[in-house]
């Protein structure tokens, strides 16, 4: 009696029973559920395994549903794959934005469409003129895909503007480097004033002065000292004429810088 076929049957059965799965000891699924004989071809539509958070910690959405398993699972041991974006995707931003791609991107497409929300999260909302700027106008880098954090202070971007502005001379006059103390962050140009003239008891946005000026230097003619301003900068009366006009005021003494003591405030 030829016993060779019987021995071969038991050897194959024994090896199949104790063979190690190439997908790791923790992946216990009948091979036939994923593979088709012959050739061990995999038909993704027939795979019963579901990539859920409960099972893997990484549920598949968007473009990830269309990706070949082997592109993420370089090793046949599926549990060796990391859930971090950076384990599969090259960081084109050179770690300037961290390793969590989902903070800006979605699994549906790489284009970012929520810049305003992202800047609000960082404490710098894109309002006024900042809303129409391209990213690289603020985030300077040799590699245009780097977006290093530059700080939320105005001077972080506007240091050259501050140093090179001479009408008025910001640096010479010792102006604050906090641009919003004078400029309106909601405005679309540098002439959108944000300085609180009301706090100085001189409202230039109403009354007779409302339409009488075009630039700060119309009244502040001493560009090295903006505090050096008085009525006569704009209202250059002839002192003699002023005294004649006020001659009927008992005890009047003409004071060149004190018009506002008697005249209605603007």
Strand tally is 2
Uncertain stretches: 4-18
Count of individual helical segments: 7
Total domain units: 3
Q: Quickly give the structural class.
A: mainly alpha
Give the amount of beta strand, in percent.
under 5%
Give the helix level as a range of percent: 10-25%
The rough form would be described as rod-shaped
Q: Which whole number gives the mean pLDDT?
A: 74
- H/E series: HEEHHHHHH
If strands are numbered along the chain, what order do they take across the biggest sheet?
1-2
The value of Rg in angstroms is: 37 Å
CA-to-CA gap between the ends?
A: 123 Å
Largest sheet: 2 strands, antiparallel
If you had to describe this structure to a student in words, what would you say it looks like?
With 266 residues, the chain is an all-alpha fold. The chain folds into three domains: 16-82, no CATH class; 84-152, no CATH class; 163-261, no CATH class. The chain is built from seven helices and two strands, in the order αββαααααα. The protein has helices at residues 4-18, 53-56, 69-72, 115-121, 155-164, 170-173, 239-245, and strands at 35-36, 41-42. The chain has a two-stranded antiparallel ribbon. β1 (35-36) and β2 form a beta hairpin. The longest helix has 15 residues, at 4-18. The relative contact order is 0.06.
């Amino acid at each position: 009696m030829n016993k060779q076929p019987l021995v071969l049957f038991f050897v194959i059965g024994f090896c199949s029973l104790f063979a190690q799965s190439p997908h790791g000891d923790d992946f216990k699924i009948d091979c036939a559920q994923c593979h088709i004989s012959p050739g061990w071809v995999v038909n993704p539509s027939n795979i019963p395994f579901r990539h859920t958070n409960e099972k893997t910690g990484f549920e598949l959405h968007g473009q990830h549903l269309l990706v070949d398993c082997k592109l993420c699972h370089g090793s046949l041991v599926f549990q060796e794959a990391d859930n971090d974006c950076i384990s599969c995707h090259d960081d084109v931003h050179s770690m300037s934005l961290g390793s969590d791609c989902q903070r800006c991107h979605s699994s549906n497409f790489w284009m970012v469409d929520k810049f305003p929300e992202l800047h609000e999260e960082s404490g710098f909302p894109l309002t006024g003129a900042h809303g129409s700027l391209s990213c690289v106008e603020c985030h300077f880098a040799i590699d245009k895909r780097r977006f290093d954090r530059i700080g939320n202070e105005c001077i972080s971007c506007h240091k050259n503007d501050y140093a090179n502005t001479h009408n008025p001379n910001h640096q010479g006059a010792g102006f604050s480097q906090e641009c919003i103390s004078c400029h309106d962050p909601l405005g679309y140009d540098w002439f959108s004033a944000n300085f609180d003239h009301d706090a100085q008891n001189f409202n230039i946005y109403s009354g007779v002065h409302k339409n009488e000026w075009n630039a700060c230097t119309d009244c502040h003619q001493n560009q090295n000292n903006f505090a050096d301003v008085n009525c006569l900068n704009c209202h250059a009366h002839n002192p003699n004429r002023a005294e004649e006009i006020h001659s009927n005021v008992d005890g009047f003494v003409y004071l060149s810088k004190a018009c506002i003591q008697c005249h209605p405030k603007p």
